[in-house]
Specification:
With about 260 residues, this protein is an alpha/beta fold. The chain contains nine helices and 16 strands. It is globular, with a radius of gyration of 20 Å.
Length: about 260
């Protein structure tokens, strides 16, 4: 079963770094967040990836082309034009990198990799979010209901205090936030049947609009409630939070052993 990762956007809300590299290549603990996402899936036995590229796509291609340079000690014998890789550790990954266009929307990117997905169930997520979602349990849930799409539903906490305001603008109460004040959102980590591709018209289709809205109207969209850790890297503040968790040695999304 293939894992499709959307990694082609401009990442404008974290422009401090995305003007230099695509957002999935921004590093957490000296590894791109894309690598962290792939390690999550690989931990659950999913090692075949189709990555949808766009903005600065060559940088992601170069990362995988030179993967040993990033992960191993190297000796270069300049005189003899030879390279020796030491302590060689290679992931058991098969990675297909597809240029899906610079300005293509999320749905269009998925449609463009249809030939690499084939006619089988596929996993789908974004290239900027990590979580400790149990992919195998989510897949079992997806297979049990037989619907077209399952997505991880995340309850994000309310960040600020809460005001109850009447129609005249008067504040009737002020209280600190609670978890129940948060919103349930699409956290990515989706599982899709290939039929969903039929509802993507082309490059300008936003996957989160017509395709998912149609699936919901048809009763074909299901939520897998995830109450554990989830964090997207949307801003520099988010990046720093992830960096601090990784540096502490207590990153909740690190479900793999090495």
């Amino acid at each position: 079963m293939k894992v499709v990762i959307l990694a082609g956007g401009f990442g404008t809300r974290i422009s401090e770094e995305s003007h230099l590299k695509p957002k999935p290549m921004i590093e957490i603990g000296e590894r791109p967040i894309l690598w962290h996402i792939m390690k999550i899936y690989s931990h659950y036995g999913f090692d075949e990836f189709v990555i949808c590229l766009g903005y600065k796509q060559y940088m992601i291609k170069e990362f995988f082309a030179d993967y040993f340079l990033h992960t191993s000690d190297i000796t270069f014998d300049i005189a003899n034009n030879q390279m020796t890789v030491h302590n060689n550790y290679s992931e058991n990954w098969k990675v297909t990198l597809v240029d899906t266009g610079l300005n293509t929307m999320t749905g269009g990117r998925i449609k463009r990799v249809k030939e690499y997905i084939g006619d089988e169930t596929f996993l789908l997520t974004y290239g900027d979010g990590v979580a400790n979602v149990d992919i195998n349990k989510e897949l079992a849930f997806h297979q049990s209901h037989g619907k077209m799409v399952t997505m991880a539903a995340i309850n994000i906490d309310q960040r600020f205090g809460v005001l109850d305001i009447n129609d005249n603008g008067g504040i009737e109460s002020f209280r600190e936030k609670t978890k129940d004040d948060g919103s349930i959102i699409n956290g990515g980590f989706m599982i899709c049947e290939p039929k969903i591709l039929d509802y993507i018209d082309g490059d300008l289709t936003v996957f989160e609009k017509k395709p998912l809205e149609t699936a919901a109207d048809m009763g074909e969209l299901m939520a897998y409630r995830h109450n554990g850790f989830w964090q997207c890297m949307d801003t520099q503040r988010d990046k720093m939070k992830l960096e601090e968790l990784w540096a502490s040695g207590n990153a909740p999304w690190k479900v793999w052993d090495n």
